[in-house]
Amino acid sequence: MAKIPQKIIHNYLRHRKQFPHVWCPGCSNGIILGAIIRAIDELKYERDDVAMISGIGCSSRMPVYVDFNTLHTLHGRALAYATGVKMFKPEMKVIVITGDGDATAIGGNHFIHACRRNIDLTTIVVNNNIYGMTGGQYSPTTPTGDIATTSPYGNIDPVFDICKLALGAGATFVARTTAYHVIEAQSFIKQALEHKGFSIVEIMSACPVIYGRLNKKGDAPAMMREMKENALPLEKFDELAPEEKQGKYIRGIFKQEIFPEYTEKYAELVASLQRE
Amino acid sequence: MKANPRDVNSGTYYMDGDVAAGYGALAAGCRFIGGYPITPSTEAAETFARIAPKAGAVFIQMEDELGSIASIMGASWSGVKTMTITSGPGYSLMMEAIGLGAMIEAPFVILNIQRGGPSTGVPTKTGQADMMQARWGSHGDYEVIAIAPDSPQELFDYTIKAFNLAEKYRCPVMIMSDECVGHMSEKVVIPPAEEIEIEPRRFYNGPKEKYLPFKPDKDLVPKMVKAGDGYNLYITGLIHDERGYPIKNQIEKGKSQKLPTRRLVDKIRLNADKIIELAEEGMDDAEVVVVSYGISYRVAIRGIEIARGKGIKVGHLRLITVWPFPDKKINELASKVKAFVVPEINYGQVVFEVERCSHGQANVVLVPHGGAGVHDPDDIAEAIEYAAKEKKKIRKVIEWKTRLEKFVFEGGYKLNK
Predict the structure, then answer these.
(1) Do A94 and A172 contact (CB within 8 A), yes or no?
(2) Number of CB pairs < 8 Å for A and B?
């Protein structure tokens, strides 16, 4: 008999320690964590070979609930911690869970440089368009014009396109999907984990309690529906007229390329110096 | 100079301390806050973001705390009053820039709503464990001013005072509040603008070619201009002369005049008497003096009441400004009293300053608290009682075993010998 998917998740949760979790009702974080766990389970990684590293924020609480090697570190610095882990444990699967603010605001510098080095880390950016944990301040991905507690008259900042940023900085696997397209998310995470080099999967996530409430987006199902309608594959997006593209975005794999990986290059350097 | 009515939302409110600080900053004439969301300080930033644009002031949410503090220093040298708002980890990130702020003598205010514990710690609960970091956090020699308000009303009043001190002495001024005061809701009276005293920026208005950006006045504080007004400003974090030019080479050649760091330190130390604000009560016949600040001051009031009920003569000294430290006052008291009792929400910071300044004349008792809460007044009362009875001179800081410490740690850890 096939295992029911929920059972798989339960195998990986830290049962007694960390519940109840901090997430609000309707939050997509649970869905995304489920997708990550199923991806790891399908790839049959030993749980001791997986390190899950995060900074601070709602999505950064994910590693706290699962039974891998968990490092819950400083706001924005998860990628730098992960770089240290990966350099000395290159055989490990190092996954970084980060949010939009954590990855592109306070951790922006670490983010672009991890992309540039092409070090073999898998980064899951959970993009909910807001700082949820601190109560709803605008983040670099809060859409222009939207309300946040620090932009009560509407946000005037232009937004970051996280995937374009990663592409520009040199990441070798870049993909975007949403919490609604959970099977696709699972598949992208699997491909990212199997990719040799820096991989990033941006997953759009619904924050009905903070972002949704501030911007009258409706409840969690309404925000899920919005993701279903707005996130389009490249072919469908290209068919749209320019005015129809307003508010829509592309999901899919933007780049998948093999390029020398950092820890391997370093090992080669060491080997060549020791030969001399 | 009086506050601008445009900036003052006069009235009587019921608000929390963070919100009061936001109103206080605007009333003080703050034109720019760069901040980054961090619990438990966010309400102050949110308040300023809401009220500032209406008065023509600016709130920018920067990408991190490094950016926040850098942006306010830029705004400061552009001629406006500035502040940033943070807590624990954010405050640690700002440390490097605090040294730059002291070096380039940019007036600015940092509001630190302290949380408990190191690192992420207890973001939603209180602590007073950043006090030494406020004084010594950045590398090298410099002096700062730090104020510890005890109520939402004081977070309004002393935010204004912090701006005034920053303009007057041109150094980083820290408002070292804590989560308890920041999230406490009380009555706050915002007076009319004409009752709020504001220190204007000390602008230079002599001939352009004679301006020296770091030539001090008699009180050791130089005058400022605005960047972009055509004074060919050269502002650097390198050791510089009165023109602002780096002087490393002159130092090497033995030519240099006075090191500017000497003045950075002296402008606060020599003006300390003017800067320091204290409050005292019941000091006349006191045998024991409780030295407290911030939220611990309010808890200590009850502890003192209990001790007085038992017939002990206790005085209460409140440090409103914690830095610069009131060396003279503590030394003077130490010669008259038996002991000091210092309750603070940490395992010993300001208490060591009290010990230093008492020069062995009086016993010093620390009532510690590990954070995430405030003291039990009974602990403070018992520590006072002990301090009054102790006849021996004990030449170290005595750590009082509080109920919480006994309960949690059974009196502390012991190492195997």
Answers:
(1) no
(2) 52
